[in-house]
Each structure stands twice: as C-alpha cells, then as structure tokens.
Amino acid sequence: MMTMQWKRWTRRAMVAGLTATLLPMAAIAEVAPQVKFQTSMGDFVIEVYPDKAPKTVENFLQYVKDKHYDGTIFHRVINNFMIQGGGYTAANGERPTRPPVPLEALNGLKNDLGTVAMARTSNPNSATAQFFVNVKNNDFLNAKGPADGYTVFGKVTSGMEVVNKIKITPTGAGDVPQTPIVINSATLVK
Fold first, then answer.
1. What pairs with residue 121 in β-bridges?
2. Whether residues 25 and 63 fall in one domain
3. Do 23 and 41 fall within a single domain?
4. Is the same domain home to 42 and 59?
5. N- or C-end of the chain: fewer Cβ atoms within 10 A?
6. How many CB atoms lie within 10 A of CB 62?
7. Long-range contacts: 167-176, Cβ < 8 Å, 24+?
8. Is the dihedral of CA 109, 106, 51, 129 positive or negative?
9. How would you label 100-121 residue by residue, b for 16+ Cβ within 10 Å and e otherwise?
10. pLDDT tens by residue, 125-184
C-alpha cells in the first residue's frame, strides 16, 4: 500500500515539475515581436500583435526586415492627435511600397494613447507602409464595422517620452515638421 502511494506521489511530483518547466518556455515562445526605432530625436520600442492583426504585422515586419523605414521621416505631426511616418525620405521622396494589406481594424484593439496603427487612404484596404502612433485616445478612429476604422497592430512599450517630444515639434504646411525627424533605423529586436 505504501509503495503504491509513494509511486502516485512521485508521479504527481514529476508531472508538476515538468509542467513548471514547460510553462515558462511556452510563455517565452508567445512574447510579442518588438521593433526598435532609432530616430533623430531618440529611440522608442513598439511591440506588435500578430495574433490580433496577422496580415498587418506580417506586412509591417517585412518592411522592417527590408530596411524600408531606415532614412524615412515623420512627415505628419499633429500634437494632441498622432505622429505619422514610414513613407517619405528626408528629401520628401515617397518610398515605393508593396501591395496594400486588407483592413484588420475589427480586432479588439483601440486607437488609444501609445498604440500604433496603419495609415491609409479613404479606401479601407489601402494600408501599405505608413504607420502612426496615437498621442492621445482617438476613439473616432476605431472600427464601427468591417469597412472602417484604422488597424491598430502594436503599442509603444518604451520611449514614449521620445514620441512626446516628436508630437510637439514645430510644423509648417501639411503638418510637416520644420526640422526633419528622421527614422535612422527600425530593427527587429525580439
């Protein structure tokens, strides 16, 4: 009887130990990818959510891997709204892009302070490379149906003070910063 109880207890202890070992590994495997932006005003890091916006994140990360964002500028800066970049060089030349991705705005993520979303034209399925960081809660950008809203796909996790410096940059016509704010590099760090 004692031997049977001992075996049962030993088996339970082994299962508990194995579970304790595997759970942290599973948690590590599910860490959201992160991208570090080194800009002329400082660095910030965003994490992206492939589980919420898979096509958008795949598209964005491909642009990062292709070094598309390196040398582009934040070309539209509106304090108390958002900062937008990823499409133009410092000489205001538009970068070529791949085909657009479909709208994934009904993913449960909101255009809240610090979130990152895709810029697009009035066509809901026109997002390519340009993105923006919300510098306040922008509820009016959230999807109300399948063909509206802006796809949120990430969030600033560090360096929000840099985003806050960018948002108060003096701008001229078209909300273009008077002094170019350059994305020196965008690098996948996780």
1. none
2. no
3. no
4. yes
5. N
6. 12
7. 167/77, 167/78, 167/79, 167/80, 167/83, 167/135, 168/79, 169/41, 169/77, 171/77, 171/78, 174/76, 175/76, 175/77, 175/78, 176/75, 176/76, 176/77
8. negative
9. bbebbbebebbbeebbbbbbbe
10. 999 999 999 999 999 999 999 999 999 999 999 999 999 999 999 999 999 999 999 999
Q: How far apart are CA 90 and CA 175, in angstroms?
A: 15
Amino acid (one-letter) located at 104: E
Q: Domain holding 43: CATH number?
A: 2.40.100.10
Residue whose pair of structure tokens reads 């499409």 in the numeric block: 87
Give every CB contact of residue 186 below 8 A, 6+ residues apart in sequence: 35, 36, 37, 38, 63, 64, 67, 69, 70
- Is residue 96 domain-shared with residue 39, that is, in the same domain? yes
| Full residue range of the structural domain in which residue 167 is found | 34-188
> What are the start-end ranges of the H helices in the chain?
2-29, 54-65, 160-167
Q: Tokens for 15?
A: 């299962």
Q: How many domains does the chain have?
A: 2
Assess whether 95 and 173 both reside in one domain.
yes
